[in-house]
C-alpha cells in the first residue's frame, strides 16, 4: 500500500506549551483511520498542521506520490491538492442554498477569473443532484442551508467534502449531536468514502469508532501513544491509564 | 446567458426601468431639454447623486457581499476625480493661455505655451513647473484610462499587502482608514503636484466647448452618470449572481471554510477590492466635473465612513439597497444643509437644521443600526413576506457558520 | 547792586579760563576741541580715545554727560562744561575736573554739543570699560549683556582688564567666556585666536556657534585663470557641478563684467516683436516664429544687421567658463583660523547632533505619552472588550471642554485643573456608561456594526459640541507653574507641560495595572475577556463588568482630553485629530495588552518625530510616511508588537 500522507517528527508549541511533540503518522490510499485521545491531546492541532492552518516549529509533512511538502503551501493550495476537512461544528454557508453550497464545493477550476466566467454545465448539475441524494438532501436542495437541522448541516458539509473529490478526508467528530439513526447514516457515508480515498476520523465516541471498524491511533500530549486495531489499543495499559481508565 | 442572467435577477430589470424613467423625466423637466422646471444646479445635484449611487454599489459589493468594511473607497473616488480633473484643468487653461498668447505679435512656441499653462495652474502653490504626475494631462484617452488604472493600482498594492497578511475585520477597516488619511495628507501638501489644499477647480467647464451653456453640459453629465450607474449596476449584479457571488458571500460568512474548499480567499478579495476601486474611480471621474472643484478634503476618511453609513441605511448585501441609501441620505442631506428645511421653533430654542442635521443623521444612523440592521432594503423583504431564517441557535451556539457568530470572532 | 553782581560775574568768568584750563580733563577736551566741535562720527574717535584712555576718574562722568547731550561749550572761551538747566533759559555750569559749579550762563552764550547716534554709540563703546568695572553688579551685568548683543573689537581690551578683578564668580565666568569669544573674533594675534577656538570644542552654546560661523563665511568669486593663491580659499568650484551650475557660473561672469550677458528667450521675443516689418522679422515670416530655431535665426539676422546685441552661443559660454575659475573664498584671511574654526565646529556639531538626538528623544517620549494617553482608553474598550469605539475621540473632546467649562467657573488655574480632572472623568464616565447601556450592549458580537453605530454617535456629539461652544478654539490655560521649560543646555530642553503629561501617562499606566491586577473589577474584566460564558457561570455579572469597563475607558479618555487640551486648541474636531493615531497605537501595539499599547505609542511617537527630523519642513509628509510605514509594519506583525499567540488569539 503506497503512502499518501507522511507526517514525521512534527512539533509545535504555543507560548511554551507543546501542543504537538515529535509526532509521526502515516496513512495510505483508501484507508480509514480513527484518531482518539483525551482533551488537549493535540487532535485538532494535528489537523491544523496538515491543512496548513498552523505551521509546525519542526518536522516534515510529505504528500502524495510526488512527495511534495505541504508545509510550503497555503490552505487553499493544500485543499486543491486533495485534502478535505470537516470541522467539529457544521460550517456551511447558511445564507445560501444547499445547491449553491454543493456547487461551490464541486471540483472545478478555482481561479477568480474562471469562477467569474463559470457556467454550470449539465455534468455539474447532475453531480450536485447526485451528491444531494447521497446525503439525503434531495428535497432540501433549494432551501437555504441556514434552515436545515443540525444533522442535515453535518451531512451537507460531508457532501461538500465529497464534492471536492479529495484524496484525504479529515473529519472532526462527525457524530457529535446526532441521533442514533443519523449516526448510522453518517457511518455509511464515511465507510463508503473510505473505499476510494483515505479518511481520518477524530472521534470521542468509542461506539462510533467501533462501528467504523478500522485502525486506531491514540494521541496523548501531542504524540502517538498507541496504534492498531481498537481491541489492540483498548488493551494497552498506557491507553487505559491516560484515557479509558478515567 | 444574458437572458438567463436577467431572468434570474428580475430586480436588475426593475432597476434599469426605474433608472430610465427617472432619466427621462429629469431630461423632460430640465432647462436645456425640457420644460425648465428643474434648475441647472439641481440637475447637477441629481447627476452627482447618481455618481454617489454608483460608488455606493461598489461599497456594497466590497462590504455587503465580500465582508470587507473598506473605509477607503472615497480615496479611489477622489483619485478618479483628480485624474479627469487634471485633463479638464490642463486643457481649459491651455485654451485660455493660447487665446491670450495669440494676441501677441510673435506666435508662441510650444514650450512657451506649456510654461504659461504651468504658471497659471501652479502659481497658487508658488511653482510653475509641471510635476511628473501631469505627464499625460494633455491626453484625454490616457487620463481616462488612468481614472480606472490609478485607483486600481493603488487598490492592488494596498489590497495585496493587507490581504496576504490576513488582516481582517476591524483591523482591515482601520488600515483602510489609515490609507485614506495618508493619501489625503499627502495631497494636502503643496509639493504633491496636485495644487495642495487648493485642489483642482473650474472642472465644470468643458475645454473647447465654451459656447455650450452649463444647462446643456449638466444634462450631458447627467446622462453619462445615469448610463454609468446602469452599467455599474448590471456589472455588479452579474458579478454577484453566479458562482463568484457564492464564493464572495462565502468569504463574508466564513472565510476559513472557503479557504479549506480550495479557493484562494486573498485572490478573490483582491479581485473585488480592485474592481470596486475602479468603479469608485469612474464614479469620482463623473462626480467632480459636476461639482466643479476637487480638493484633498474630499478624500478625508470621514467621507468613506459616510459611504458606509449610506450603504448601511439603504441595506447592505443588496445592490438596490445601496442605491436607495446613497440617493436618499445624500439628497436629504443636501436639503437639510442647504437651509431649505424649515426651522423648528421650540419656544425657548429654535432648531436650525443647518446646525442640527448632523445630530439627526448620527442619531438616526444609530437607530437604524440597532433596530433595522437590514436598512431600508429590509422593507422590501417585509413587503414580499420573506421571513429571515431564524436558525442561528443561541448566541454563539453550535451554528459556527452563522454570520452573526463569525463576526463575533473577528 | 545787580549791576555789581553781574560785573563780578563777568570778572569771574574772565578769570575762569585760567583756572578751568588747569584741569586735566579740560586739557584733553581743549586739545581735541576742533574734533569735538566738528562732531563727526568719522573723525571723533581720537577725542573719545584720549578721554577713555586718560585714566582719569572723571572721564566716565564726562563721557556719560556727553552721550546724554548735557555737555555745553561756552562761546566766549570755548571751554566745556556740564550744563544743568536752571530755568529761564539759564544753565548751571559744572566743571568736569572738580565737579564744582562754576556759575550760570545764559543759553544764548552757550553751544550744546549734540552728538549724533553714531557718535553716541562710539561713546557707549568707550564707556564699556567703566561700566564693566562699575561698583554696581547689575550695571556690570548689563554691560556684559550689551557686549554680548553687539560685540565689537574695541570691547576686547576693556573686557580683559575687567575679568581678573571681578568679585562676582558667576559674572566673572560670564566675562571670561565673553572674553574668549571676543578673542576669537577680534584678537589681532593669530595664535591666541586659535587657542581660544580650540578651547570651545566641547561647548554647545549658541553664542559659540554664532562666533565661529562668521569666521567661515565665504564669498563666491571668479578669477581669470587660476584662483589667487594668496587668498584663503575654501573650495574651488567647477561649473556644472552641484554647488555651481553652469548658468549660475556664467551669470557670475556676466555680473563681474567678464562676459557678454546672455539674451534670454523673453528678450529675444521682445526684440523680435520690436522689429516686425512687413509681417516678417529678419527675413523670417511671423507665422513661422513659433519655434525656438526660427526665432534664433531671426534674431541672428537682426544681430548681424546691428539692430540687436549679438546673442551668446553655447560655445561662447563654454569658452568663457573654461578661461575662468570659480572659488569660495573665506572672508577670514588666516587659513589657520578657518581650519581651527572648521575643526572646532565639526566637533561641536557632533556633540550638538548627539544632544539633538537626546532632545528629539525627549520630544518623541512626550509625543508617545500623548498617544498613550489618547489610546489607553481605546485599548481598554477595543482590546479588552473587543468593541470599536469611534466616538472615543469625542470623549477626549468632551474631557477637554469639561476642563474649559470648569475654568470658566473657577478662575484659579491650579485649582481648576485639580477640579477638572475628576470632573472630566465623571462626565465621560457617565457618557460612556450611557452609550454602553443604550447602544453597544445590543451590538456585542457585531464589531463592524458597533464601529458604524459609534461613528453615528461621534458625528452627533461633534455637531452638538459645535452648536454649544461654537467653531472657534477655546482656551484651556495651564497653571503658571507649568509654563516654561526644563532647559538642560542650549540644545536640550523640554517644557514642563510635556513632563507633566509624561508623568500623567505613567500614573495612568500604574492605575490601569492596579485596577486590572489587584482589584475585583480587573479580575472580573479579565475573566469576561477570556471566556465570557465561563465567567457568567462563575457568577460574574457580565453586563455590569462590560458597563464599568466601558465607563473606565471613556473616563480615561476624558482625563486625556484635559491633558491634551492644555497644549492643543480645544475645538470640536479635537477628538478626530487623535482618533486615527489612537487606533494605530492600539493596532500596532497589539490588542488586549496594555504593554502593547505602550509599545505602540512609543513606536508611533518615536517614528513620527524621527521622520519629522529627517524631513523637518513638512509635518504633513511626515504623517503620510508614518502611516505608510505602519501599513507595511502590519504586514510583518499583523497582530501588533505584542501579540497573543496560539489558541488565545482566537483563530
From TrEMBL, chain A:
MF terms (GO), sorted A to Z:
ATP binding; ATP hydrolysis activity
Recorded hits in CDD domains, A to Z, give: ABC_Mj1267_LivG_branched
Q: Name one GO cellular component term.
A: plasma membrane
Under InterPro entries, the record lists: AAA+_ATPase, ABC_AA/LPS_Transport, ABC_transporter-like_ATP-bd, ABC_transptr_urea_ATP-bd_UrtD, P-loop_NTPase
- Keyword set, alphabetical order: ATP-binding, Nucleotide-binding, Transport
In terms of PANTHER family, this protein maps to: CONSERVED COMPONENT OF ABC TRANSPORTER FOR NATURAL AMINO ACIDS-RELATED (PTHR45772), HIGH-AFFINITY BRANCHED-CHAIN AMINO ACID TRANSPORT ATP-BINDING PROTEIN (PTHR45772:SF8)
What's the protein name? Urea transport system ATP-binding protein
* Species this protein is from: Thalassovita litoralis
UniProtKB/TrEMBL annotation, chain B:
Matching Pfam families: BPD_transp_2 (PF02653)
Query: What keyword terms does UniProt attach to this protein?
Result: Cell membrane, Membrane, Transmembrane, Transmembrane helix
The UniProt entry lists membrane topology as: Multi-pass membrane protein
Keyword Glycoprotein applies: no
A GO CC term assigned to this protein in UniProt: plasma membrane
Residue stretches spanning the membrane? 140-163, 170-188, 219-240, 260-287, 293-312, 319-336, 356-372
Q: Which GO terms describe its molecular function?
A: branched-chain amino acid transmembrane transporter activity
Q: Which InterPro entries match?
A: ABC_transp_permease, ABC_transptr_urea_perm_UrtC, LivM-like
Q: Which residues form the signal peptide?
A: none
Where in or outside the cell?
Cell membrane
NCBIfam families attached to this UniProt entry: urea_trans_UrtC
Task: Write down what this protein is called.
Answer: Amino acid/amide ABC transporter membrane protein 2, HAAT family
From which source organism is this entry? Thalassovita litoralis
TrEMBL record, chain C:
- State the Gene Ontology BP annotations: amino acid transport
- Signal peptide residues are 1-22
Q: Name one GO cellular component term.
A: plasma membrane
Which keywords does UniProt give here? Amino-acid transport, Cell membrane, Membrane, Signal, Transmembrane, Transmembrane helix, Transport
| Localization per record | Cell membrane
Q: Tell whether Membrane is among the UniProt keywords.
A: yes
**GO-annotated molecular function:** transmembrane transporter activity
- Report the main location listed first in the record: membrane
- InterPro entries attached here? ABC_transp_permease, ABC_UrtB_bac, BCAA_transport_permease
Q: Which Pfam families match?
A: BPD_transp_2 (PF02653)
Look up keyword Hydrolase and say if it applies: no
Q: Which residues cross the membrane?
A: 370-392, 413-435, 496-516, 547-567, 579-607, 619-636
Q: How is this protein situated with respect to the membrane?
A: Multi-pass membrane protein
| Similarity field | Belongs to the binding-protein-dependent transport system permease family. LivHM subfamily.
What is this protein's record name? Amino acid/amide ABC transporter membrane protein 1, HAAT family
Amino acid at each position: 500500500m503506497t503512502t499518501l500522507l507522511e507526517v514525521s517528527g512534527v512539533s509545535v508549541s504555543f507560548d511554551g506549551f507543546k501542543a504537538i511533540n515529535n509526532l509521526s503518522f502515516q496513512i495510505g490510499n483508501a484507508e480509514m483511520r480513527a484518531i482518539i485521545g483525551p482533551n488537549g491531546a493535540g487532535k485538532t492541532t494535528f489537523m491544523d498542521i496538515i491543512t496548513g492552518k498552523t505551521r509546525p516549529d519542526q518536522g516534515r509533512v510529505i504528500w502524495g506520490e510526488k512527495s511534495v511538502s505541504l508545509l510550503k503551501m497555503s490552505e487553499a493550495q493544500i485543499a486543491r491538492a486533495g485534502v478535505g476537512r470537516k470541522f467539529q461544528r457544521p460550517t456551511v454557508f447558511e445564507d445560501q442554498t444547499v445547491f449553491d453550497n454543493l456547487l461551490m464545493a464541486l471540483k472545478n477550476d478555482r481561479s477568480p477569473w474562471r469562477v467569474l466566467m463559470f457556467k454550470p454545465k449539465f455534468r455539474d448539475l447532475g453531480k450536485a443532484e447526485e451528491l444531494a441524494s447521497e446525503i439525503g438532501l434531495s428535497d432540501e436542495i433549494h432551501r437555504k442551508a441556514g434552515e436545515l437541522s443540525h444533522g442535515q448541516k453535518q451531512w451537507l458539509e460531508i457532501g461538500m467534502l465529497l464534492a471536492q473529490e479529495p484524496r484525504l478526508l479529515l473529519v472532526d467528530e462527525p457524530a457529535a449531536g446526532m441521533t442514533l439513526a443519523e449516526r448510522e447514516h453518517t457511518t455509511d457515508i464515511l465507510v463508503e468514502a473510505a473505499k476510494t480515498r483515505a479518511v481520518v476520523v477524530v472521534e470521542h465516541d468509542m461506539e462510533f469508532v467501533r462501528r467504523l471498524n478500522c485502525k486506531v491511533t491514540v494521541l496523548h500530549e501531542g504524540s502517538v501513544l498507541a496504534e492498531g486495531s481498537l481491541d489492540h489499543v483498548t488493551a494497552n495499559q498506557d491507553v487505559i491509564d491516560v484515557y479509558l481508565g478515567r | 446567458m444574458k437572458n438567463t442572467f436577467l431572468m434570474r435577477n428580475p430586480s436588475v430589470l426593475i432597476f434599469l426601468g426605474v433608472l430610465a424613467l427617472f432619466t427621462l423625466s429629469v431630461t423632460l423637466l430640465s432647462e436645456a431639454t425640457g420644460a425648465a422646471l428643474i434648475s441647472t444646479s439641481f440637475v447637477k445635484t441629481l447627476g452627482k447623486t447618481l455618481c454617489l449611487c454608483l460608488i455606493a454599489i461598489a461599497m456594497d459589493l466590497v462590504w455587503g457581499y465580500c465582508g470587507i468594511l473598506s473605509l477607503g473607497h472615497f480615496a479611489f473616488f477622489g483619485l478618479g476625480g483628480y485624474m479627469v480633473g487634471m485633463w479638464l484643468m490642463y486643457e481649459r487653461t491651455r485654451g485660455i493661455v493660447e487665446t491670450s498668447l495669440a494676441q501677441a505679435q510673435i506666435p508662441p512656441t510650444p514650450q512657451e505655451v506649456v510654461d504659461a499653462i504651468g504658471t497659471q495652474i501652479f502659481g497658487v502653490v508658488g511653482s510653475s513647473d509641471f510635476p511628473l504626475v501631469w505627464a499625460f494631462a494633455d491626453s484625454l484617452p490616457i487620463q481616462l484610462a488612468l481614472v480606472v488604472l490609478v485607483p486600481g493600482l493603488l487598490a492592488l498594492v494596498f489590497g495585496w499587502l493587507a490581504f496576504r497578511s490576513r488582516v481582517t475585520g476591524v483591523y482591515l477597516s482601520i488600515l483602510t482608514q489609515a490609507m485614506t488619511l495618508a493619501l489625503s495628507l499627502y495631497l494636502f501638501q503643496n509639493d504633491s503636484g496636485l495644487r495642495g489644499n487648493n485642489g483642482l477647480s473650474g472642472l465644470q467647464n468643458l475645454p473647447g466647448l465654451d459656447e455650450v451653456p452649463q444647462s446643456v453640459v449638466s444634462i450631458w453629465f447627467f446622462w453619462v452618470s445615469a448610463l454609468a450607474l446602469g452599467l455599474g449596476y448590471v456589472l455588479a449584479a452579474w458579478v454577484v449572481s453566479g458562482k463568484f457571488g457564492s464564493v464572495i458571500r462565502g468569504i463574508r460568512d466564513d472565510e476559513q471554510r472557503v479557504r479549506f474548499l480550495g479557493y484562494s480567499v486573498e485572490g478573490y478579495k483582491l479581485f473585488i477590492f480592485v474592481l470596486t476601486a475602479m468603479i469608485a474611480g469612474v464614479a469620482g471621474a463623473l462626480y467632480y466635473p459636476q461639482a466643479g472643484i476637487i480638493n484633498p478634503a474630499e478624500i478625508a476618511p470621514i467621507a468613506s465612513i459616510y459611504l458606509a453609513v449610506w450603504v448601511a441605511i439603504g441595506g447592505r448585501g443588496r445592490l438596490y439597497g445601496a442605491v436607495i441609501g446613497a440617493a436618499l441620505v445624500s439628497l436629504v442631506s443636501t436639503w437639510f444643509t442647504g437651509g431649505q428645511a424649515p426651522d423648528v421653533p421650540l419656544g425657548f430654542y429654535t432648531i436650525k437644521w443647518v446646525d442640527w442635521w448632523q445630530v439627526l443623521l448620527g442619531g438616526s444612523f444609530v437607530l437604524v443600526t440597532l433596530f433595522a440592521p437590514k436598512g431600508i432594503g429590509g422593507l422590501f423583504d417585509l413587503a414580499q413576506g420573506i421571513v429571515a431564517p431564524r436558525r442561528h441557535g443561541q448566541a454563539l451556539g453550535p451554528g459556527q457558520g452563522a454570520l452573526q457568530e463569525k463576526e463575533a470572532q473577528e | 547792586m545787580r549791576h555789581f553782581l553781574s560785573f563780578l560775574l563777568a570778572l569771574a568768568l574772565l578769570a575762569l579760563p585760567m583756572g578751568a584750563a588747569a584741569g586735566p580733563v579740560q586739557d584733553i577736551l581743549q586739545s581735541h576741541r576742533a574734533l569735538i566741535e566738528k562732531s563727526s562720527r568719522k573723525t571723533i574717535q581720537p577725542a573719545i580715545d584720549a578721554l577713555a584712555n586718560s585714566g582719569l576718574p572723571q572721564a566716565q562722568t564726562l563721557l556719560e554727560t556727553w552721550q546724554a547731550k548735557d555737555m555745553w561749550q561756552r562761546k566766549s572761551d570755548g571751554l566745556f562744561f556740564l550744563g544743568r538747566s536752571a530755568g529761564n533759559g539759564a544753565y548751571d555750569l559744572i566743571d568736569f575736573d572738580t565737579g564744582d559749579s562754576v556759575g550760570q550762563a545764559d543759553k544764548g552764550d552757550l553751544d550744546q554739543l549734540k552728538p549724533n547716534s553714531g557718535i553716541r554709540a562710539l561713546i557707549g563703546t568707550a564707556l564699556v570699560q567703566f561700566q564693566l568695572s562699575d561698583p554696581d553688579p547689575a550695571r556690570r551685568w548689563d554691560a556684559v549683556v550689551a557686549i554680548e548683543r553687539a560685540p565689537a573689537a574695541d570691547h576686547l581690551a576693556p573686557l580683559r582688564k575687567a575679568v581678573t578683578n571681578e568679585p562676582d564668580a558667576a559674572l566673572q565666568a560670564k566675562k571670561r567666556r565673553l572674553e574668549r569669544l571676543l578673542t576669537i573674533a577680534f584678537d589681532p594675534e593669530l595664535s591666541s585666536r586659535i587657542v581660544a577656538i580650540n578651547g570651545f570644542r566641547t561647548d554647545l552654546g549658541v553664542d559659540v556657534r554664532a562666533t565661529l560661523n562668521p569666521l567661515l563665511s565665504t564669498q563666491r568669486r571668479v578669477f581669470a585663470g587660476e584662483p589667487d593663491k594668496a587668498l584663503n580659499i575654501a573650495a574651488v568650484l567647477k561649473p556644472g557641478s552641484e554647488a555651481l551650475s553652469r548658468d549660475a557660473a556664467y551669470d557670475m561672469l556676466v555680473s563681474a563684467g567678464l562676459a557678454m550677458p546672455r539674451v534670454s528667450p523673453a528678450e529675444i521675443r521682445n526684440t523680435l516683436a520690436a522689429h516686425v516689418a512687413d509681417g516678417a522679422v529678419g527675413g523670417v515670416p511671423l507665422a513661422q516664429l513659433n519655434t525656438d530655431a526660427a526665432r534664433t535665426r531671426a534674431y541672428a539676422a537682426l544681430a548681424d544687421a546691428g539692430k540687436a546685441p549679438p546673442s551668446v552661443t553655447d560655445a561662447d559660454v563654454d569658452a568663457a567658463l573654461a578661461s575662468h575659475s570659480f572659488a569660495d573664498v573665506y572672508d577670514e584671511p588666516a587659513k589657520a583660523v578657518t581650519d581651527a574654526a572648521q575643526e572646532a565646529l565639526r566637533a561641536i556639531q557632533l556633540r550638538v547632533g548627539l544632544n539633538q538626538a537626546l532632545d528629539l528623544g525627549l520630544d518623541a517620549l512626550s509625543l508617545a505619552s500623548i498617544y498613550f494617553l489618547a489610546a489607553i482608553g481605546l485599548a481598554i474598550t477595543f482590546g479588552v472588550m473587543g468593541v470599536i469605539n469611534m466616538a472615543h475621540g469625542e470623549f477626549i473632546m468632551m474631557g477637554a471642554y469639561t476642563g474649559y467649562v470648569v475654568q470658566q467657573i473657577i478662575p484659579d488655574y491650579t485649582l481648576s485643573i485639580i477640579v477638572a480632572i475628576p470632573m472630566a472623568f465623571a462626565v465621560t464616565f457617565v457618557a460612556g456608561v450611557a452609550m454602553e447601556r443604550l447602544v453597544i450592549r445590543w451590538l456585542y458580537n457585531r464589531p463592524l456594526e458597533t464601529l458604524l453605530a459609534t461613528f453615528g454617535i461621534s458625528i452627533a456629539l461633534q455637531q452638538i459640541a459645535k452648536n454649544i461652544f461654537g467653531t472657534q478654539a477655546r482656551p484651556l490655560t495651564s497653571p503658571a507653574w507649568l509654563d516654561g521649560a526644563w532647559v538642560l543646555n542650549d540644545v536640550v530642553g523640554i517644557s514642563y507641560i510635556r513632563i507633566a503629561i509624561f508623568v500623567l501617562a505613567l500614573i495612568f499606566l500604574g492605575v490601569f495595572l492596579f485596577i486590572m491586577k489587584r482589584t475585583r473589577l480587573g479580575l472580573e474584566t479579565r475573566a469576561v475577556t477570556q471566556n465570557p460564558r465561563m465567567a457568567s457561570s462563575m457568577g460574574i455579572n457580565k453586563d455590569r463588568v462590560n458597563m464599568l469597563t466601558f465607563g473606565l475607558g471613556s473616563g480615561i479618555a476624558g482625563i486625556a482630553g484635559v491633558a491634551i487640551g492644555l497644549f492643543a486648541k480645544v475645538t470640536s474636531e479635537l477628538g478626530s485629530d487623535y482618533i486615527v493615531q489612537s487606533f494605530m497605537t492600539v493596532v500596532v501595539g497589539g490588542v488586549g495588552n496594555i504593554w502593547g499599547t505602550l509599545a505602540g505609542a512609543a513606536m508611533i511617537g518615536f517614528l513620527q518625530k524621527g521622520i519629522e527630523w529627517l524631513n523637518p519642513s513638512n509635518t504633513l509628509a511626515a504623517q503620510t510616511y508614518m502611516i505608510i510605514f505602519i501599513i507595511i509594519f502590519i504586514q510583518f506583525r499583523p497582530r501588533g508588537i505584542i501579540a497573543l499567540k496560539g489558541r488565545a488569539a482566537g483563530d
